[in-house]
Write a structure and sequence with these properties.
By secondary structure, the chain is mainly β. The protein has one helix and twelve strands. It has a single domain, classed as Nucleic acid-binding proteins (OB fold (Dihydrolipoamide Acetyltransferase, E2P), Beta Barrel), CATH 2.40.50.140. The strands form three sheets. It has a seven-stranded antiparallel beta sheet with strand order 5-4-1-7-10-11-12, with helices on one face.
């Protein structure tokens, strides 16, 4: 049995983009994404992290309010709690750490409602930027012929 760690959602960016550098020198971007909740007028929010070339792509082509399709994997870890730049210590003088579950972006796609800042519609897949011409073409569901009655169908 294989275990799959992937998911997807469609939402809108809540803030302006801000590229940052990790301590190790990697480029990353975090931005809250709001999605429709399971109840009317009750949106849910996620704060995915986008790394390296995908982060630069998002920064270049997306803005606050833009709809976005995000594929992701979940990653867990721990994080030291800080207050005023100093680690918070427990009663034994040890740094307090909390568990965190991180949404790591594996793919970013434009959604039909948004117009990219750069003009031509593109998507970032596997770290590569593909022109729209290389994407799967859309199908017009109104462009089919009526087959008449179904008496001639073999099933």
């Amino acid at each position: 049995m294989s275990i799959i760690n992937q998911g997807a959602f469609i939402g809108r960016f809540c803030f302006d983009m801000e590229l940052k550098q990790s301590k190790g020198g990697k480029t990353y971007l975090r931005n809250t994404v709001a999605v429709d909740g399971y109840k009317k007028d009750s949106p849910s929010t996620f704060v995915p992290v986008v790394w390296d070339e995908r982060a630069k792509f998002v920064d270049k082509y997306f803005s606050k309010g833009d709809p976005v399709g995000i594929s992701y994997a979940l990653r867990n870890g721990t994080q030291t709690v800080y207050d005023g730049g100093e680690p918070v210590l427990n009663k034994d003088g040890e740094e307090i750490e909390v568990s965190k579950l991180e949404v790591v972006v594996t793919d970013v796609q434009f959604m039909p409602a948004n117009t990219p800042k750069g003009g031509e519609q593109k998507q970032a897949t596997g770290g590569n930027v593909q022109p729209k011409s290389l994407q799967t073409p859309s199908i017009d569901l109104n462009d089919f012929e009526d087959i008449g009655d179904d008496e001639d169908l073999p099933f």
